Amino acid sequence: MNIAVVTLFPELVVAVGESGIPRIALEQGALVLSTFSPRDFATNRHRTVDDRPFGGGPGMLMIPETLSLAIDAAKASAPNARVVLMSPQGGRLNRAKVQALAELPALILVCGRYEGIDQRVVDVLVDEQLSIGDYVLSGGELGAMVVIDAIARRLPGVLGDAESVVQDSFETDLLDHPHYTRPDQWQGHEVPLVLRSGNHRAIDEWRMQQRLSGTARVRPDLFYEHGLDERARALLTAEWQHAAETNDKLGRLSDE
Ligand code: 9D3
After folding, report:
1. Can you spell out the DSSP letters for 125-160?
2. How far, CA to CA in Å, does 164 sit from each of 36, 82, 83, 91, 185?
3. Nearest CA residue ID for atom 13, ligand 1
4. How far is the CA of 97 from the centre of ligand 1 (A)?
5. Which atom of ligand 1 is nearest to the CA of 144?
6. Residue 79 among the catalytic residues
7. Separation of alpha carbons 33 and 17, rounded Å
8. Which domain range does residue 218 map to?
9. Does the annotation count 192 as an active-site position?
10. What is the pLDDT of residues 7-58, one digit of tens each?
11. Nearest 5°: phi and psi at 126?
12. 9 and 80 share a domain?
């Protein structure tokens, strides 16, 4: 996949390709990353890329000419690319959107700075706006880096089979279970016995219980979306029985 990023801070965006899965994707050639800076298309003495907003108000906007020239250059390098503007006005990024983007042959990510960009550039050149969440960032670069990292993990051949993202939704729409490594005692805290039991059925059940109860506690939105199949129902019932028994024991202890 070819990703071109339009940004005033190319060194920020290039950094996402210097480690982890994105770096592997670049080395394999599964991902090609390039940057285009509006600054390189500025012609006046100060290389100006911003100007004051019509109608007044705080801050500056990216001017249409240098921004559009950078987008045009990105388009020339990737003729059929989808143009996505990173913006707080966009729809929120999620797994489905990452997957849809990862299936495209080419993508242009446009990063705004200052208070934003001239709306005519949005109207004429942008296919879609994308936000990474409801908080204010200083510009689109961190958003673009999030998108690139998330896409790289989904490109065919980048992750091994074991880590492969081709899992059913039951595997992916719950939170993960806790993980432990050696030593089995650390600062007085033990690794749960079941994980050292060698009983793989019991381990699978414990992990799924942890995922279900953890998701229910921390992300009720995901939990209700997920729904409960028969196995989940049985595991949760078993856990609640266990919790009730523990409660009873504690109750008896405190009665004594
Ligand atoms: C505080 C300024 N805001 C109200 C006047 C407008 C504003 C302009 C520019 C807010 C943020 C930004 C820069 N942000 C992005 O370019 C951005 C972003 C974000 O801020 N949050 C979540 N996702 C994204 S993607 C791009």
Report:
1. H-SEEEES-SS--SSSHHHHHHHHHHHHTTSTTTS-
2. 32, 25, 27, 27, 32
3. 139
4. 19
5. 25
6. no
7. 8
8. 185-255
9. no
10. 999 999 999 999 999 999 999 999 999 999 999 999 999 999 999 999 999 9
11. -100, 135
12. yes
The Å distance, Cα 195 to ligand 1 centre, comes to 45
* Closest C-alpha residue for ligand 1 atom 9: 115
Nearest partner of 6 among 141, 197, 184, judged by Cα: 141
Question: In whole angstroms, what is the distance from residue 154 CA to residue 4 CA?
Answer: 18
Q: Tell me the chain's radius of gyration from C-alpha atoms.
A: 25
> Which tens digits make up the pLDDT trace of 128-185?
999 999 999 999 999 999 999 999 999 999 988 667 655 555 667 899 999 999 999 9
Last residue of a domain, one of 103, 136, 152: 152
Residue type, 52: R
Please indicate, yes or no, whether residues 147 and 204 belong to a single structural domain of this protein: no
Catalytic residue check, 163: no
* Active-site annotation holds for 88: yes
